[in-house]
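Example S7 (structure tokens).
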């Protein structure tokens, strides 16, 4: 799809609204006073609003459609998100990323593929607060966590008011009655054994079925899914 086609797909009222947005922002605080970076971000937002770019554009989409480098695309995404995402929104994105880890080394290493550079920084900050450094040496978009670090991150992302509910649901599923940290660590060990193949690597496309209910506090879903990890007990 071209920019021209994207504009053609809009209604007249949508075109007027986007044109008004561009002109008003460009004239704030006065005509032509915006720095080059802000003008780029303004036009990037306009391209999102006309549908030429996705609402959360992937780096490759920016590279391909805007004909820019990967470094430039990462910078645009970072600057755009820095202006529109608060800590709560980043926490929600982080929970989504945690639900889809790659499991390596026979279940001992959890890797998170995060393309959003601001979210990567947010994750590393959260890990630092928990006392765990993140290993991002392999790739700027791949964060590697050992079992203890991933366990601490999962617990930290579960709302504190849901801790008792989550613990009870996990025990009902067959997990040994321990501290919440001990219980979830045991669950992660079982997940590692279930999803890491003989080569030590597996895509985690179904892991979200097990992890997502922990963050939402859906007790019934927690018990029904986690019980599959404990067939020898339940």
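Recovered sequence:
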């Amino acid at each position: 799809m071209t920019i021209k086609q994207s504009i053609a797909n809009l209604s007249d009222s949508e075109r007027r609204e986007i044109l008004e947005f561009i002109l008003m922002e460009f004239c704030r605080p006065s005509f032509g006073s915006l720095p080059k970076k802000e003008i780029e971000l303004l036009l990037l937002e306009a391209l999102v609003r006309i549908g030429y770019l996705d609402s959360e554009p992937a780096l490759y989409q920016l590279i391909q459609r805007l004909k820019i480098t990967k470094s430039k695309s990462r910078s645009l995404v970072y600057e755009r998100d820095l202006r529109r995402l608060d800590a709560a929104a980043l926490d929600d994105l982080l929970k989504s990323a945690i639900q889809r880890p790659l499991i390596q080394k026979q279940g001992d290493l959890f890797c998170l593929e995060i393309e959003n550079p601001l979210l990567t920084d947010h994750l590393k900050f959260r890990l630092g607060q928990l006392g765990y450094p993140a290993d991002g040496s392999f790739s700027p978009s791949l964060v590697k966590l050992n079992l203890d670090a991933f366990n601490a991150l999962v617990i930290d992302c579960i709302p504190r008011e849901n801790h008792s509910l989550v613990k009870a649901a996990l025990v009902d599923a067959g997990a040994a009655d321990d501290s919440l940290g001990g219980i979830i660590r045991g669950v992660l060990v079982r997940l590692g054994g279930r999803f890491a193949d003989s080569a030590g690597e597996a895509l985690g496309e179904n892991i979200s079925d097990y992890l997502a209910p922990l963050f939402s506090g859906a007790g019934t879903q927690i018990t029904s899914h986690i019980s599959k990890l404990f067939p020898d007990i339940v």
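Notes on this example. The CA atoms of residues 110 and 145 lie 5 Å apart.
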